[in-house]
Amino acid sequence: MLKKQGLYLREFEHDNCGAGFICSLKGNKSNNIIHKALEILEKLEHRGAVSSDGKTGDGAGILIDIPHEFFVKNCDFNLPQFGAYAVSNVFLPKRENQRKYCIGKFESYIVGQGLEILGWRNVPVDSSVIGEIAAETEPFIKQLFIGKADKEQTDFTFNLKLFTARKQAEHHIYNSKLSESARFYVPSLSTKIIIFKGLLIPEDIKLYYTDLQDPSLVTRLALVHQRFSTNTFPTWDLAQPFRYMCHNGEINTLRGNVSRTLSRQELMESDWFGEDIKSIFPIILPGKSDSAQMDMVVELLLMTGRSLPK
């Protein structure tokens, strides 16, 4: 056992997933923060599990600032200034016809909220590094860039519209008859951060997402997570970090929490959403991990004007 030192206290040792966080206290962006965060992730490897193929993990990921200058350089379309657009890595079906269907539906809901599709970028990945089991459900990954309705649109309203469009697309696609509908997933859709994650072991994150090896990729902060799957089988979408939280451990009151949330949907109303509120139900998608379900509820609370600390 380590001795008490700095902020480390032995009594807070737990046996579950591993998480790490690093940032510049002065807000300076650097590529070194990404390197250090990935080093943290690799040192957390003992907190995860590896499948029988020796290469498929329970899931790992990294959250960083949106690298605006990097995207300006690497996108073949024009981007507005930082903060005036949202971006996400989007998991899509492998089959081209199903992928086009998902893209079309997602775009239609985004436009339906009055937002602008700025463009798509193929995310460069190296599929040769992942395990055979992970490869069986590997999604096709693209980056989607979305602009505000107009320059006067507030950040809160913009995020509200992004959230509504994403939920509408999720429900439509998951309830469709597509054989690969489960591969559709939006890890984050934000004006501030972007998440790279998957059914990977820690050392393969930077090898799989080759953008993470680019020295021009910089950030002020990085959050990493290595999953140890317990209540749910490991999948690409259940790797962490999630959109608003990174969670270790299990929620003992999960079934009751989910049931109460579902029952409250009948009474939910919000001036922010208006009639659109019915289109985002169910808030909690079935079959997800306890952490993922908690993240969905946290997201809803943030979309109704509450702050994250509250």
Question: What features would you highlight for this structure?
Answer:
single chain, 310 residues, alpha+beta, Glutamine Phosphoribosylpyrophosphate, subunit 1, domain 1, 8 helices
Strand portion, in percent? Answer: 15-25%
The helix fraction, in percent, is 25-40%
Report the average pLDDT across residues: 91
Total domains: 1
Summing up helix and strand content along with how strands pair, one would put the structural category as alpha+beta
- Say which CATH homologous superfamily is assigned: Aminohydrolase, N-terminal nucleophile (Ntn) domain
Any low-confidence stretches, pLDDT <50, length ≥5? none
| Overall 3D form | globular
Main sheet, how many strands, which sense, barrel?
4 strands, antiparallel
Name of the level-1 CATH class: Alpha Beta
Strand order of the largest sheet: 1-7-2-6
Topology:
Elements: E1 18-23, H1 32-43, E2 60-65, H2 68-74, E3 85-92, H3 96-112, E4 116-122, H4 132-136, E5 140-147, H5 155-174, E6 193-198, H6 205-208, E7 221-226, H7 254-264, H8 290-302
Antiparallel strand pairs: 1-7, 2-6, 2-7, 3-5, 4-5
Helix pairs in contact: 3-5
